[in-house]
Design goal:
about 675 residues, 6 domains, five-stranded mixed sheet, four-stranded antiparallel sheet, flat, membrane
Length: about 675
Amino acid sequence: MTGLDRQLKARQKSGLGWLIAGGLGSACVLVAFVLWLFVVKGHSITVLPKEAADAGSFQVKAGLATMLGNSLYRIGTNVELLISSPEYSSQTVKIGTDSPSAVTVTLTPKPGRVRANIASLHDSNVSWFLDGAPLARSNPLDTFIPPGEYTLSADHPHYQPFSTALVVKRASQQSLDVSLKPVQGGIDVASVPSGARLYLNGQEVGTTPIQLSLEGGKYEVAVQLKGFETSQETLSINQLTPMQTRNYQLLPEQAKLSIRLEPEGGDLLINGVSGQPGTNSIDANRNHLVRYSKTGYTSFERQVNLAHKAEQALDIVLKKSVGEVSINANVPALIEVNGVAQGESPLQLTLQTLPHTLRISRPGYRAQSIKVTPNAQKMQNLDIKLLTEFDARRQEGQALFADVLGIRTRLVKPDAFTMGSPQNEAGRLRHEHPVNVDFDYRLWVGVTEVTEAQFAAYDANRPISNLPVTNVDWIDAAKYCNWLSEKEALTPVYAIQANRVVEVNYNADGYRLPTEAEWEWLAKKSRRATETQFVWGSSERIPEKAGNFADQSVKGQQLFFFDTINDGFAGRSPVGSFKPDRLGLYDLAGNVSEWVQDFYTTAPPDLDKVHLNYTGPARGQQFVVKGSNFNSGRLKALRSAMRIVGEGPADNIGFRVVRKARGTE
């Protein structure tokens, strides 16, 4: 290779280097341009007001960004930019992908600091107002106020109102010395008796009556007169009451009488005016009559005279006052006084002269309770006539033994209707025959089913509760009705021999089970314009608190239940726990089913006639059970026409009682 060849080759290598360097430079420029075009985002920042912008500064607090003049260039998403300016409150703004390219930020001027002092006042009871709005309650005032022109006011009860114009510049400080003028007022003081010395703040200023001019402020006032107690109070001369007028009624010099009473609760009088146990202030050096009396005790009376500032204790103990009471009755009877047995009539008692409650009683007779207050001066003679329970009830026109047991009844007058169910009623059973019935009597109906407690009065082996009695056979219910009739002195309905009913007297006025017709009339027709399918009406929607049915609590225990109901009871519920029907009867639907009077049969009676006072088949072996119970989980079982055959005692079958109304009761 010649020298020329070597020079040419070297030049070729040098040109290639420059070419590579140029390419790399172009690539860097291109990359920077792409980054600038697609990655770097710019925002122009405008700061208001102009004064804030002229002296403002920017500082990137978070994010990747830089400021060039009033422009922000960011790489990435969010940037926090702090904008500051003297005399303005700094503000941090967030700028991100959702921010516009032009961002305007308005800075708030810093408030000015205002100090105001009322040197003549040494309390903080000064109210400051700015343009009439409350600002502070203090002295001195030290507060920050936004720039602007205002009216600053100061108010103190004892001084005249003060106002001044106030100009506050941003970030400024200023101090004010405020001088208040006192309120000009006075006092007009009189006393009874007059001629008393008047003291203001401990200095004597004259005698009553007197008028004085005073500046606003508080004054300790004392009025003194020999032989009388000093009257003292604090008066305020202020904007609302610059003039104070007083007429002091001076009390004679006082003494203290401390009174203890035994027993308490009576009437204490001092000179005929009501007094109180404990310390009483009385006029000194004069006689006072102290009286104390209480019903049932002898009275106390004494005169008291005490020197000025003397103190005396007075214990007043009253003695009981008694009287004689003689009690006679038409039959020997137990006499109780305030619930405590005293003996048998005739009886003479010595009792305190207080109101007493006397109870005169004898088994089988209506007890009497009377109020009596013995007289200490004269014996009282009481002649009591006791009536047998029978006579007492007849006089009152109602049976009350059931009331004693808690068996409430409601009087009804059944009228014509059709029992059973129509052919198109959903859930109808074939033995629900549509029988036309009518009635010619009035009926007392048990408001609730008979409870365990009410049945336990007849059968002591039964539990006592407010749950409906269950596990009773039809004959048990009939026997209970007869027992109740005897207690009421009514004619029993059932003739029972060898634990069987051999005759039913429907004309008797005693208690019995309702007939199926009576039961359905109560459930379907009573106080209804037309017969209804259910106790609550004919809607298939069960109202809230309509009755105790199979609800969510029996899920998993029986196949059918109402999964939308939770009535709070898995079994029986206390009678009256749910809403009554339109007549006020409880549990015709739900809780327990009920025995009724009728024999059970599937054979229909004559369906073409109206049956008056229908009582069902004349004979049979089993009895009808009516009404749904806590096991009823299907809508068809809640229908009032539903009837089942009673096969003996069950935990979901009870009963309620009825009886025919007597005469005009």
